[in-house]
Amino acid sequence: MITHLLTGEKNYWINFKKDLSIPLGDAKARISLQKNLDDEIVREGFREGRNHEEDIDDMIWLFKNFKSFPFFKKAVIEWEKGDYLNNQLYKIGLEINSRLQKEKLDRKEKRGYLSRIMALTHESNINQDAFSESFGYGTRKIKKYLLFTNIFFILIIICSVSFYYSSMIKKLIFSKQKLNRRKKQLKLIIKDLENAKEDLSTGIIQHKKIIGTISHDIRSPLKYIQLISKHLSKETLKNNDTVSNKYANSIYKSSSQLYDFTKTLIQYSKIYMEDRDYIQKPYSIHSLFENKKDFFEEMALSKEIIIKNVSCKDLHSTINIRIMSIIIHNLLDNAIKNTSKGTIELGAQSDQFKTTYWIKDTGIGMNQDIIDYYTNLFKNRDPEKLILSTYGIGLHLVLELLIIIKGKIFFSSIPNKGTTITIELKHAK
């Protein structure tokens, strides 16, 4: 605005309005939240404030659930004051622009306007510091509880998994005892086995529902821990508190990993609780790769990895997109974990019989024993062996989902040069 005042150039006035529209958009969102207006109106305000689309729902949730907390109330008061100062600055801008269009301003008038702008800018800087201090106070107050909260949710997941395996073992022991008692009655044994199989299948579905429910219920608080720890990390870094910054970064990374893990569990449980053979509308494979590339972009950059999407933009698929999303997600995550300062290539091509996907990295490669293990495991096509395996959940989920969509997987690896994983899916007749 000062440059526009001194030069009278219209471009500076346009840039001033463009920059000021950001806090004005946030102000619109705040007022809508305080008046309990429709969430879509709130979202529109945050979009005008150029907030990331994925963060908007979390910001709405945070405001609604913590608006009664003292530190949050104080921050909102400072927010309102900042919006008032921005409106005053905009009014001065309108007045200056109007005067410049009608007549030139003399030096004395320009000095007067300049003094008013500088005073508002100074007051706005004070307001920004007060707003940051309000949030900083709140984060410092709950900092000592974050580590215990994180451990608490980890224990919940561990206990849930332990309960699941404990129940499975008890059922297997019970089935074995029943078979030993009735080994002389062949017909009854067969009947009991069929009943046991049905009960076991029902139990597995129920346990998957329990895992899906628990994952969904802890997703929101995990996201809040992630947001708070990220803010805490920035505050401690600004205050040169290296010890607290180290703990805050640790909490942020752990909560992010837990959040992604529970998100995968929710998607996985939905596949089993819903129809897995529903008719899928065609979608772009290139766009699916781009979404996953964007999701892992930050992680890849931290390891100096370049992710390339070489698939054709007009290539489409009708395979269940949720299943394919989980498969690509886990394969890309595995490639990043085993690659540093290299490249990862995402590609796909199709002919009249099948569509072929591949993920090629320049990482450390896969041990031949591990390749043989996964290859043999997939050939057996035994879902129980996939679930009970101890090599990790990522590739086992991929193998189990490939069984569902009747796909094939191939591994090719050279030590210290990289790994290529190829998936083939036949076209539906």
Describe this structure in words.
This protein is α+β, with helices and mostly antiparallel strands and 429 residues long. The chain has helices at residues 2-7, 10-34, 39-48, 53-66, 70-102, 107-181, 186-238, 242-273, 285-295, 297-302, 321-337, 368-380, 383-388, 394-404; strands at 283-284, 306-309, 316-317, 343-350, 354-361, 408-414, 418-426. It has 3 domains: 2-105, no CATH class; 145-273, no CATH class; 283-426, Heat Shock Protein 90 (2-Layer Sandwich), CATH 3.30.565. The chain contains 14 helices and 7 strands. It has a 5-stranded mixed beta sheet. Strands 1-3 form a two-stranded antiparallel sheet. The longest helix has 75 residues, at 107-181. It is elongated and about 110 Å long. The model is unreliable at 386-390 (pLDDT under 50).
The name of the CATH superfamily of the largest domain reads Histidine kinase-like ATPase, C-terminal domain
Q: What's the mean pLDDT score?
A: 77
**How many extended strands?**
7
Strand order of the largest sheet: 2-4-5-7-6
Say what the CATH topology of the largest domain is. Heat Shock Protein 90
Largest sheet: 5 strands, mixed
- Structural domains: how many: 3
